[in-house]
Write a structure and sequence with these properties.
The structure is a single chain. This protein is mainly beta. It has helices at residues 2-17, 41-44; strands at 22-36, 47-48, 50-62, 67-83, 88-90, 93-95, 100-117, 124-147, 151-159, 169-183, 187-198, 203-205, 210-226. It is elongated, with a radius of gyration of 20 Å. The relative contact order is 0.21.
């Protein structure tokens, strides 16, 4: 993680020092869901995705006319939701029968993506993204709700990540497609969709001793501009 962040910082600094490089901000919203091994499949099938936000900034460092490196720093979340048919303990939090629980973990992410800019004659340029992302979990929260005519939040409880032996460092593979439109000579607006698949398994489920991780998609928009 330290080596990755140092490399990321070096790329950002070199990008700022390069006239052709651009800087951008991105905000997005998507859905995160649980994935697991075979032992936990019966439980995983009962879970649903939960909405998760993201926000961050990046630098686009041209390598060729059509290929760029895109390091960045982002704040995002991962999680899942499940309806409870019994009293259970989830992430160290005791939850009552009949409630619906949404668990979200906050992450500071450092993606290092390769961006392929597809050649086009139009004002809108499509592109593709692919690369690794290293993250660190900064906290977690379990929100329980009950459904009557509308969904009512009952209470939220912070998760002690150290108490449940949660692995804070995370490695994921990120892929996506997007398009950008120039606004002026050096600025551009963009819209993109990403899919993220965690390679790490941060949490050992008690008793069954199965490891679970996350996957999800995210749609984001933002603006890039030359410094």
């Amino acid at each position: 993680m330290k080596t990755h962040l140092l490399l990321l910082l070096a790329l950002l600094v070199s990008g700022i020092a390069t006239a052709q490089s651009t800087f951008g901000i991105r905000a997005g919203f998507g859905q995160s869901s649980l994935r697991s091994g075979e032992t936990f499949d019966a439980i995983t099938d009962r879970t649903v995705g939960v909405g998760v936000p993201s926000f961050g900034f990046f630098a686009e460092l041209p390598v060729t006319d059509y290929l760029s490196l895109r390091p960045g720093l982002e704040y995002t979340k991962r999680g899942t939701g499940v309806g409870l048919t019994d009293d259970v303990e989830l992430a160290g939090v005791k939850l009552p029968l009949g409630a619906f629980a949404k668990t979200r973990f906050s992450y500071l992410e450092a993606p290092l993506l390769v961006q392929l800019n597809l050649p086009t004659e139009s004002a809108i340029q499509p592109y593709a993204l692919l690369g690794p992302s290293v993250g660190y979990a900064t906290g977690g929260k379990v929100t329980t709700s009950a459904k009557a005519i509308v969904e009512l939040n009952l209470y939220s409880t912070d998760v002690d990540l150290d108490a449940i032996n949660y692995q804070r460092f995370n490695v994921a593979v990120v892929g996506g497609l997007g398009a950008r439109a120039r606004v002026g000579q050096h600025n551009a607006l963009f819209l993109e969709a990403r899919y993220s698949h965690d390679l790490s398994q941060p949490y050992d489920v008690p008793v069954v001793r199965d490891k679970v991780g996350f996957q999800g998609w995210n749609v984001g928009a933002g603006m890039s501009f030359a410094l």
